[in-house]
Design a protein that fits this description.
This protein is globular. Strand 6, helix 6 and strand 7 form a beta-alpha-beta unit. It has an 8-stranded parallel sheet. By secondary structure, it is α/β, with parallel strands linked by helices. Helices cover about 45% and strands about 10% of the residues. Helix 2 runs parallel beside helix 3 and helix 3 runs parallel beside helix 4. About 50% of the residues are buried. The structure holds 2-(acetylamino)-2-deoxy-D-mannose. 2-(acetylamino)-2-deoxy-D-mannose binds next to loops. Keywords: Lyase, Schiff base. GO terms for molecular function: N-acetylneuraminate lyase activity. Pfam families: DHDPS. Belongs to the DapA family.
């Protein structure tokens, strides 16, 4: 059974990476290690098998396995949100039912993609999944899966069980608008890590994204600064986040983050092909570049930089 109310799912929520072994099988002990590491750091929840979790590169059975491992390891310490998106309603329902049975606290999904599904298809997709279990559904708006128009977001919000949106876009006035029009209880998670403080200033309740796997402490500071109306701290910390992210996204940054987690002694394994996995030479280059950034901008308080 889920243990957390959707209104408790706020704050910094890593879009958890799936830890694969070098042969691309799921590395269960690595997965557990990463979950413990992040919970010990104080993250406020975990979002599973989404983009960063490489969910679309996994079979249904593998996605279920990851959900089971993480729920078991997290052991009700933080809420668990499971991305169940596929391009077909039936499979997504199966994943949602599984997440519910295993004790997840919420489900989430990108809209169906690849074909040019129209507003009605998308509406029906969400309605069918949302009705399949009692869990709250968090819609996931991201350009990669086809941006959901603002009016469609409003229609989706009227579906029972649709309780919020993970909003990965830079048009943050829409976050303010959503909070305004749909009410404070409709949860919004800002999904562009480079825009975290902006999302929060516009009213987002939390942050769900990739870089919270690597440096949750930085974003927890930003979250706190915004909540304390400390504009100066939020801005300085966001600027550091941008410097690190801007460098990282030139590469296959899931691999880069896995390597950097290794500097903290956390085994975050490998990505699945066709994503790249960088070797020792590139890793040394990343280290040198991050060290330069740290020294140049006198960046403090980010563990993976301090570990170099
Ligand atoms: O929404 C993430 N998107 C993807 C989640 O992984 C595609 C973001 O956290 C970005 O990775 C991040 C870097 O651009 O903002």
């Amino acid at each position: 059974m889920s243990k957390f109310d959707v209104q408790e799912m706020k704050g910094v929520i890593p879009a958890l990476m799936t830890v694969f072994a070098e042969d691309e099988t799921i590395d269960e002990s690595g997965m557990r290690e990463l979950v413990d590491h992040l919970i010990n750091k104080g993250v406020n929840g975990l979002y599973l098998t989404g983009s960063t979790g490489e969910g679309f590169l996994m079979s249904m059975e593998e996605r279920k396995k990851v959900v089971e491992i993480v729920i078991d390891e997290a052991d009700n310490r933080v809420p668990i949100m499971v991305h169940v998106g596929t391009i077909g309603t039936k499979n997504s329902i199966k994943l949602a039912e599984h997440a519910y049975e295993k004790g997840a606290d919420a489900v989430s999904s990108v809209p169906p993609f690849y074909w040019n599904f129209d507003e009605e298809h998308i509406y029906n997709y969400y309605k069918d999944i949302a009705e399949a279990t009692p869990l709250p559904m968090i819609v996931y708006n991201i350009k990669l899966a086809g941006t959901i128009a603002y009016d469609s977001i409003k229609k989706l919000a009227a579906i029972e069980n649709v309780k919020g949106i993970k909003y990965t876009a830079t048009s943050h006035f829409e976050i303010a608008s959503i909070k305004d029009e749909l009410g404070e209880d409709f949860l919004v998670y800002s999904g562009a890590d480079e825009m975290a403080s902006s999302g929060l200033f516009n009213g987002a309740d939390g942050l769900i994204g990739s870089f919270y796997n690597l440096m949750p402490e930085l974003f927890m500071d930003i979250y706190e600064a915004v909540n304390n109306n400390d504009l100066k701290t939020a801005r300085i910390k966001q600027q550091n986040a941008v410097r690190i992210i801007k460098y990282s996204v030139q590469y296959d940054f899931y691999s880069l983050m896995r390597l950097a987690l290794g500097w903290l002694g956390v085994n975050a394994g490998y990505s699945r092909r066709p994503f790249k996995n960088y070797g020792a030479e590139k890793e040394a280059e990343f280290k040198a570049e991050f060290k330069k950034l740290k020294d140049k901008y006198k960046i403090e308080g980010i563990d993976f930089l301090d570990a170099i």
